[in-house]
Each structure stands twice: as structure tokens, then as C-alpha cells.
Amino acid sequence: MKGTAPCYETLRAYCETVPLVDCHDHAIQCGPNHKDPIAVFTHGYFESDLRSASSDAEMDVLNDEKRPLEERWPILERAWKRARFTGYGMMVRRALKEFYGETDLTLAALQRMQDKLLNYEDEAFFDSVLAKANIAVRILDVWPDAKKVLDGTLKLTPRGRLAISLPGYHGVRSYEEVQAVGRVVGRTITSLDEYLDVCHAIFEGHKAYGAVTFKDQSAYTRTLDYGNPTRAEAEAVFNWFMEDPRRSASYPDGVKPLDDYLFHAFMRMARDLDLPVQIHTGHMAGIRNDIVKTNAIGLTKLIELHRDVRFDLFHANWPYSGELLYLGKNYPNVALDFCWTNIIDPIYCQNLFKQALSSVPHGKIHGYGSDVGGDSVDQAWAHAQLARDNIAIALSDLVEIGYLSLDEAQEVASAWLFGNANDFFRLGL
Questions:
Q1: Which runs of consecutive H residues, i.e. helices, occur in 18-141?
Q2: Cα–Cα distance for residue pair 246/13, rounded to 1 Å
Q3: Closest by CA position to 227, among listed 324, 317, 298
Q4: What stretch of H or E contains 150?
Q5: Angle formed by the axes of helices 192-209 and 175-183, nearest 10°
Q6: 45 with 89: CB under 8 angstroms?
Q7: What is the largest CA-CA distance in the chain?
Q8: What is the DSSP string of 202-244?
Q9: If residue 406 lies in a helix (H) or strand (E), which one and from where to where?
Q10: Rounded to whole angstroms, how far apart are CA atoms 285 and 380?
Q11: Alpha carbon separation from 283 to 29, 127, 220, 345, 363 (Å, rounded)
Q12: Does pTM surpass 0.70?
């Protein structure tokens, strides 16, 4: 993509020189490698667009790597022709050209790719792609073995900083799930107080290891509208399943008082540990999801109550842009994060970047997060290119109408790509 403003090329070239803070990634390891060229297209976010453009039955065939390429190609060809212009499609096309030298997806291209599939497991190659993207640091939400975090033996992928994943700690609904948390520190838990003490110790250990934030993606399974139940209400749920290991609190309503109470308790821990909290809002991976429950506006009461907690609201709340701008403008403790969104909907991002600059202090915007795994580092590079495009297009348009000078646009671009996140997460780069 290219902007039409005269200063676009200058601003885009400047964006290329700014190192990136990748605010969100899932690379728990380098790799695994793809063994099938079709997996380059079907593994990752583009799979959902291909599925939306075809059918579940056709995707089952397409993902069956035991079938020859020639048998699966007609399915991929039909879906590709219908889906290749989405943001995910644009990302895949860029990676295809940069890393395989292919300008279009054809059967012949797939056959050529078969012998040169990328070696994601080579850490030096993995890191070289991050260097090519000028990614300085990545915040990793990888759900690691907590024992390895606490004893310091966890090895992160290159340039990684750890996020503490919260859902498994506040979503407990059985005796065994509680004891699984206790086993991390070698304790048997018998009360809600003991459970909270163990969680606090685990979180302290994560921070000592180097964790820079909490991360919560509970919007996949519950509403973001957290109530504020009493301790007695939460403890009644906790004690009910703890007194009989065969019980499990019913989902979602039966466990909600405990889930909500624990989440508030963890916000207080985040405050005391001086760690921000990243929260998934808006669009979810895959298809056939209920997006109403993920609208960031549901967090309003939580954000207002916990005024000393720094919240980083993810995925630009796609498609609820107005609600996101309201939260960013209205609450000093809210930052707006465009991680993933630059490939969900590039045009949405270009428009929202402009609206955000005119309505929200620009120091509260985080412009990039790859949100991919260890087998998609090439897509992290392509995603970074699209994010730089979107920011340069948005800001150059504002220069063209006289809203900004070019120097001011460069200042904003640097903040969105690097400076704001560096400060917000206390990265010290």
C-alpha cells in the first residue's frame, strides 16, 4: 500500500528506520517448521479467511497433508481468489514475495516452495528475520511452565520479554484446577486466602524473572463486563467445589462471582507490582465467535475503579472504534494497542490512527504487535511492513491537510512504533 500525500514516501522511509516494540506475540519456541507448502497459507490467521471463503469440509481436505498438492490445489485456488485482498491476504502475499520470491499463488509456486520451506527452528535465522523487520523487542504471551519461570530455566525466543497470562488463574472452577496452581510452588491449597497468596507469589516470581506485563484473553470465553461481587459470594463458590474434588462450578454463571472477584484481586496485585495489564478486546481468532461480549466498553467499571492500574486495550477493539476512542480519551490509565489489527483490517487502522491522533493524546497509542507464533516469523516481518504503511499513510494524510508538520508526523510515528510502548512497559530500551 502507498499513500497519496506528497510526503508519504519520506515519512514511510522514516518509519522504516524506527525500531519496533512488538507489543504482543505468541512465539513460545522457534518453529516448528512447516512440512507442507500449503501450510504457509493455512496455518495462521489467513486460514480463517480461507475458511470463510470456502467451507469447513473443504478446509478439512486442504489441511490433510497426506493428500498430494495437486488434489488440494483447486480448493486453495478457489478460496485464494476470493480472499487474497483481505489484510491477512496482503500479509501472506508480502511474505510470499519476500521469502519465496513468488509474486502469485499458483500450483507451480507451491511446487517450487516445497524444497525451500523456511527453517524457523534455526534460531539465527529466526533472529535475522526480526532484525530485518527492525523489531527491537517482543512481548511474549506464551503460557509457559510456571515452574521454569520461577526457577529461571525458561528460555524465551529471541528478543522476547514475558507476559503473565491471567485467565488460568482467575478462571478456576474445580479443586484440581486450584491444586494445579498450588503445585507450582509446592503447596496444597485449602482456602481462598491461601489461593490468593500462592497467586501473588507466582506473579512476584514472574516479575523477578523479567515479566513486563499481565495479559488477559478471557474475552474468548466470557464477557468483559466484570462485576464486583463480595468476598462472601466468591468464597461460597470456591468453598463449594473445594470441599468435594468431584465438583466443578458451572460455566459461565456459576463460576462468575469467583472469576470476577479474583480478577479484581489480580488488578490490585498488578497495581502493587507496578505491572500493566493487557486485555484482549474486539475481534477473536477463528470464525463464528460472539463479538458482543468482547467490546472494550464492558471494561468501563473496571477501568474506573482501578485507577492506579495501567490498561493496554488490544486489537484496537475492532470493529468498535468509537468505544475505544472514548476509553482512551476519558481514562488516564488506558492505552490503545493496535496489535494484530493492522492485518485484521488495514483501512480501519488507517482511519482510526487519524481519529486517534485528533481525539486521544498521541502518547497513549501503541502501533504494532505481530500476534503470531514461532512458525510464522516471516509473517511478523510482513505484518510490520503493513503497520508501517498504515501509520505512514494516516500521518501523511494529516500532513497534507495541514493538521501536522512533517517533523511532527515523524515524532508521532516514532512514538507509536517505539517510544510509547518502551515507556509504558518500562522496557528501558
A1: 39-42, 46-53, 56-62, 69-83, 87-100, 107-113, 123-132
A2: 61
A3: 298
A4: helix 146-151
A5: 40
A6: no
A7: 70
A8: HHHHHHHHT--EEEE-GGGTS-S------HHHHHHHHHHHHT-
A9: helix 406-414
A10: 16
A11: 25, 29, 9, 11, 24
A12: yes
DSSP state of 192: H
Residue 252 confidence (pLDDT) above 90: no
The three-state secondary structure class of 177 is helix
Tens digit of each residue's pLDDT (9 = 90 or more) over 13-28? 999 999 999 999 999 9
Sheet holding 160-165, edge to edge: 20-25, 135-140, 160-165, 213-216, 277-279, 311-313, 334-337, 365-366
As a whole number of angstroms, the distance between CA 253 and CA 173 comes to: 11
pLDDT tens by residue, 92-105? 999 999 999 999 99
Bridge partner list, 312: 278, 335
368 backbone φψ class: left, alpha, beta (φ>0; ψ -120 to 50)? beta
CA–CA separation, 231 and 254 (whole Å): 15
- When computed from its CA atoms, the radius of gyration of the chain, rounded to whole angstroms, is 22
